[in-house]
Amino acid sequence: NHTTWHHQTFTLTGIPGMSEKDFWMALPLCLLYSTTFLANVTILVVIKVERSLHKPMYYFLAMLAATDLSLSFSSMPTMLSVHWFNWRSVTFDACITQMFFIHTFEGVESGVLVAMAFDRFVAIRFPLHYATILTHGVIGKIGAAVLLRSVGAVLPVPFLIKRLPFCNSNVLSHAYCLHQDAMRLACADTRVNSIYGLLAVIFTIVLDALILLVSYILIFHAVLGIASWEERLKALNTCLSHIFAVLLFYVPLIGMTLIHRYGKHLSPVVHTLMANIYLLLPPVLNPIVYSVRTKQIWWQIVRVFCRGRID
Fold it and tell me: How many domains does the chain contain in total?
């Protein structure tokens, strides 16, 4: 006979095998979170106060910045508590709440990138009708659809994970909670969780990747229809920041997936590093990429902080 019980807490993991170095991990983490906060808030403030940036492209950029902030804040509490204060215990309900928000904002970011690709396609293919196609109402509906789709896809996850018994180990692989990480600790059949998790990923991340691929095929086809080489390069240049943002999101995701699938022989430190890069790198680099690559954003940032003395 054996007794099955439900753990009330999970134990988070810092740097595997090097817990004494967790404190030194906290310093770059604080720098990353501070940079993420300042950079994305700057983008949001500049877009709000500068009327010249009240255009569809910058509204979508504001959505991306807000999503990056939300994704960072979803992981920050446990990441800093583990590495800075060595507080590794998290309640079951708090863990479920965190995984809900992390997975939701991952889906939102993927959807916003698709919306930005649509914006670039309309701007290049239908430049004369750009403002009439992407009105404030249409942009608002796109943003709401992206958010509702992601919430709807992730909403069953807390209920699916909460029904599972956890009677063996309660040690997670990361300093934050993920559905697939918690699911592997259950001492019950997790096929429903696995199947639903796969379907949710296909419906959001994989579908968005396919739409992005098709969008850029259409964009390049539209660019080739432009007679002037100079105008072609100018049109492509408006897409570079978005291409970098897509790569920042999907390359770490693909790398983490491949390492998880084929890199079981690798050090746990590699798995932790890739997981942290996937979660932390896009929010901190997206606003920097857009600030450097987009002259309008850069000059408006300078003007805002110099109180309009630089024209």
Answer: 1
The Cα 286–Cα 280 span in angstroms is 11
What is the b/e burial string over 156-191, where b = at least 16 CB atoms within 10 angstroms of the residue's CB? Answer: ebbebbeebebbeebebbbbbbbbbbbbebbeeebe
User: Phi and psi dihedrals of 89, rounded to 5?
Assistant: -90, 135
Task: Give CA–CA dist 202/199, Å, rounded.
Answer: 5
- Give the CATH number of the domain where residue 77 resides: 1.20.1070.10
pTM over 0.85: yes
DSSP string, 28-39: HHHHHHHHHHHH
Q: Is residue 105 part of a domain?
A: yes
Is residue 20 pLDDT above 70, yes or no? no
Summarised one tens digit per residue, pLDDT across range 288-305 is 888 877 777 878 777 767
Q: Where are the beta strands (DSSP E) in 125-238?
A: none
Main-chain dihedrals φ then ψ at residue 222, nearest 5 degrees: -65, -40
Residue 3: inside a domain, yes or no?
Answer: no
Q: How far apart are CA 246 and CA 10, in angstroms?
A: 33
